[in-house]
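In the current project phase, work has continued on tokenised descriptions of protein folds. One protein thus recorded appears below exactly as we store it.

——
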Amino acid sequence: MMLVMDTPISDPRPAAGRPTREQAQARQAEMLDAALDMFLDKGFELTTMEAVAAAVGMTKRTIYARYPDKAALFMAAVGRAIARTATPRAALEAIAGDDLETTLVAIARLRIADLSTPEGVRLRRIITTESYRFPDLLMLSYSQGAQPVHDHLADLLRHHDSAGAICVDRPDMAASLFMTMVLGGPIRLVGSPQPMSAAEVDDWVRAAVRLFLNGIRTRSD
């Protein structure tokens, strides 16, 4: 499925009465936010282009001029939301330190926090629900959300392995295993009737980090 880019096309010298580029971008963001809210609340099937247009005071023609059908609008709105809930590389680099255990705990906490926001919870639900209709959705979610964290973690493990502090033959696999360990319990229960408390999440993260490190630390004969 072809994804539609979200950058609005506008003349750098708008004619009188036409919106500026900044205004056009703001209106497009408003439209995508309204569409996302409807897709999250009603699902893809029950959301209509007419309802989205009415919610933001636009004509259907305006929306169809940018997105040829509801599927294109859905992918644009959900794709934008995925990008918003992604953990920034700069944030990951800012918490990196010399102590690997402290860094791993900080990475886990940061990723759990990003995935536990109300928008993050609803977003995962709609991705799971609609992935059969949009096969590209899971890959988009992974490439923009999980993969940057995975790649940063793999690089971190390579660095500590080269320094002799740990022994990791397959850092990419180790990074995937680590994220599965730390996210599995807390994220599975987010939004459930009995989510983990902050203290329980912290205990889980610290236990998972210790278990992971015990498996990769170098040992003398």
Observations:
- The chain has ten helices and no strands.
- The first helix runs from residue 21 to 46.
- The chain has two domains: 21-82, 88-216.
